[in-house]
Recover the amino acids of this structure.
């Protein structure tokens, strides 16, 4: 078996080129990326600093537009979309997780998640229950009223994963979600993302520099100098164990 059953391609990038900066200091950061993300899978992306990982994540999440190439998210071609249409697509289909959590410090855990629901037009009496349920699903049912300043890094990252999950987006994009955490909490967060990816309605892509997290990957993509340099399905080849040992 090479794919989880019922999985489908939810993000398709074809020939993505991205030029950043202004002449004469333009840099071709992405040089023709072809990539598909499938539901039911955790894809981990590695690569040297400056190779284009964050830029690619921003394009896949419709924050940046490609200079060239096609991006299709949840069956919708993004090429001719207006900024507003892209924002709607992002709100409906994409959840983001950042290295630095990006929680609103004056709001409790449940209020942070409710804010994300509100941005997706989910509000009213059911919103609290949905937010509490999202927190429950990441193991924080007992911390819903905690303020970010009273939470550990691992707990804050769990809140940010609950926030990304709120409204059930089809894709979760995480930029170095474990980088600010100690080894134990980092592994627990990556394990949680692997669990989140088991939902056959959702794909998860996370950038990581930590080889120990590779054991959770269904797929490992290596990016180098703006190009895909490698793609492995380690649970089939056994490669993750080998890579994690380095
Ligand atoms: N707004 C910008 N204008 C010009 N160049 C940029 C801009 N943003 C990023 N770059 C350059 O694009 C290249 C890729 O950056 P990117 O952040 O995508 O790399 P990365 O692989 O995520 O790196 P890291 O692992 O250090 O986070 C780098 O050379 C960076 O300096």
């Amino acid at each position: 078996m090479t794919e989880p059953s019922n999985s489908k391609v939810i993000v398709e990038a074809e020939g993505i080129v991205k030029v950043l900066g202004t002449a004469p200091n333009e840099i071709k950061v992405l040089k023709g990326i072809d990539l598909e993300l499938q539901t039911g899978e955790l894809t981990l992306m590695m690569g040297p600093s400056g190779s284009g990982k964050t830029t690619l994540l921003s394009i896949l999440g419709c924050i940046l537009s490609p200079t060239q190439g096609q991006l299709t998210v949840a069956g919708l071609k993004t090429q001719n979309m207006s900024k507003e249409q892209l924002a709607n697509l992002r709100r409906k289909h994409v959840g983001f997780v950042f290295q630095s959590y990006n929680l609103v410090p004056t709001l409790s855990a449940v209020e942070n998640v409710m804010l994300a629901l509100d941005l997706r037009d989910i509000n009213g009496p059911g919103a609290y229950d949905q937010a509490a349920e999202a927190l429950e699903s990441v193991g924080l049912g007992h911390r819903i009223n905690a303020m970010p300043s009273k939470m550990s890094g691992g707990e804050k990252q769990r809140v940010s994963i609950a926030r990304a999950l709120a409204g059930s987006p089809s894709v979760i994009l995480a930029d170095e979600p474990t980088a600010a955490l100690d080894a134990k909490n980092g592994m627990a967060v990556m394990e949680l993302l692997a669990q989140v990816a088991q939902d056959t309605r959702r794909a998860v892509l996370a950038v990581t520099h930590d080889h120990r997290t590779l054991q959770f990957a269904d797929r490992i993509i290596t990016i180098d100098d703006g190009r895909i340099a490698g793609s492995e399905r380690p649970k089939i080849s056994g490669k993750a164990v080998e890579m994690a040992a380095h």
Observations:
- Strands lie at 9-20, 27-38, 42-46, 68-73, 76-77, 94-98, 171-175, 203-207, 219-224, 227-232.
- Residues 183-196 form the longest helix (14 residues).
- The chain has one domain: 9-244.
